Amino acid sequence: METSQDLFKDLEIAEKLFSDGSIKNAQKKVRNAYNKSKHLKKLPNKLRHKLNAAINKSRYYDEISSFATNPKRDQLITKIKDLISNPLENPKKHAHEINDIQGQWQLLDISSKAASKSQWVEFNELSNKAWEPCKEYFDEIKGIKVKNAKEREKIIDQINQYVISNQKKWPPVKDLITYLRNMFQNWQRFAPVLDKDINKLKTKYYDARKPINEYISKQENINKEKKEVLINKVNEIEDDDNERCISKYNELKNEWQKIGPAGRKNDSKLWDKFNKSADRFFVQKKQVIENEIQIINNLRSELKSASKTVNQILNELKALKNTKNTKEFKDINKEIKTHNENILINQKKEKIASYGNVYTALMKKSELETVPNIFQSDIEKSFKNKKSDIKELTNACIKLEIQANVDSDKDDQELRKVIQLELLKDKFNKKNKKSSNELNAIVSHFINNFSLKDAGGEQEKLWARMNKCFEVLI
């Protein structure tokens, strides 16, 4: 039974999804929360307000989505009309063009608010008209499917003939497996077939393969028993001379290699069991592992003291072949991961500080070397600016706050809505690869519209707001 606390959690998840840009998933969460709220006997005021706010946000994104996508739908309708008026000479290309337009229409429905009923009816009717010149192409496709079915019938006949020719004395299992694999590859070449033929052909194909598969299964069971006998023989090896034990084990190993497969599920397990039965002969391996563990412990000390770089340590670890599953090997890899994560954290802190230094450099209170290289030339140019453009500086600040999901000042709320709409349009415009709304571009925009000559409290306040965003975005 759903409670008001459950609905609060659902709405918080929806709010996070909206912030992350996962609009469709967020709207789905809101709809589910709304439907669940109907089953509550009493809806707390706080929950009602939160639910209404989420519904309003969902509607807002629907409106924005329609605003952005409806012109594209109109373009697709125009394209389909052009195809009806001027069909392509090649019916195959004509069909592909229709498929492409329909695919674009479906993408719009997936990525934004679905088309209205009138839009869909119009597009569907036009699509049906556009398909009419492709009748010959579909007949051609049908002909290909019929031919494919005949080729598959031939493959079935070939397998049946192979069974008749070999069932008195079957070839080795490996050869049978290879034969079936090759016939399957041929089978796959002749696709597709008509829907009415699929199940019938599949049944005949698997029936034809059945005698071969049954023999393979029977022979694999025999091979499994032979390999289990060899495992028992390894367990029975006893000799004071360890070298003779190893020699006897190698002889059994050669016998093992001559036995055919025992099935994919069994082979690796049996092989592991066979090898483990001989582990007692290889006492030297234990010493090798102990030596490698000592190397790992030394490397851990060198990592802590920074006497070797991470790359040097990783290269030395690659040379260790016998300890990859040991606790020591896993521990040092965890320590390397933590070490690298700490480096990244420090780099992030340094980067945030360097972005924060931009304003002091603009005010000539710190050296250009303290800011990222990408901004240094822009800062030098800003010294020539006669006057700051407060409007553009505010615009840059609000863009950054939107990106960082940080609240803007109350006086800037209307401007924030306008900029949000611009950002959404930019997001829908996939052709725009290098956006002017990225972090570095926004900071550069601020610098280019700043002037030291009239710098004062207003500029400083805007930069302080931007500085808070760096900690979120970097």
The strand count comes to 0
* Overall average residue pLDDT: 83
Helix and strand run: HHHHHHHHHHHHHHHHHH
The overall number of domains is: 5
Query: What proportion of the residues is helical, as a percent range?
Result: over 70%
Which class of secondary structure composition applies to the elements?
Answer: mainly alpha
Strand percent estimate: under 5%
- Could you tell me the radius of gyration in angstroms? 36 Å
Largest sheet, strands/sense/barrel: none
Distance between the termini: 42 Å
What does this structure look like?
With 474 residues, the protein is mainly alpha-helical. The protein has five domains: 4-115; 145-222; 226-281, no CATH class; 284-325, no CATH class; 348-473, no CATH class. The protein is built from 18 helices and no strands. α15 (390-403) crosses α16 (413-428). The two termini are 42 Å apart.
